[in-house]
Specification:
It contains 2 helices and 4 strands. The chain has 82 residues and is of the alpha+beta class. The model has no long low-confidence stretch (mean pLDDT 90). InterPro entries: HotDog_dom_sf.
């Protein structure tokens, strides 16, 4: 599965889980660690820091397949809604 598809699914799942739009957030980094077959089940783990970053990991079983960091836009980091 292409990395851009993995990122799209991860960001959409984070937005739904956190009940907030993330379309203005910046992707600070992304690493693709292992290939993912189409239809392979994935799990998402994340840590939303108070400083305006969200670190996430996509896993297929026990295998980490991708990691990334999202950063809030500057206004959101200063306390304004994102």
């Amino acid at each position: 599965m292409p990395g851009v598809v993995l990122l799209d699914h991860a960001i959409a799942a984070l937005a739904a889980t956190l009940a907030r739009p993330l379309h203005t957030w910046r992707l600070g980094s992304a690493k693709f660690l292992s290939p993912v077959a189409p239809g392979e089940p994935l799990d998402l783990a994340y840590d939303a820091a108070a400083g305006g970053t969200i670190r996430f990991t996509l896993r297929a079983g026990a295998r980490d397949v991708a990691t990334g960091v999202l950063s809030a836009p500057p206004a959101a980091q200063d306390g304004a809604p994102a």
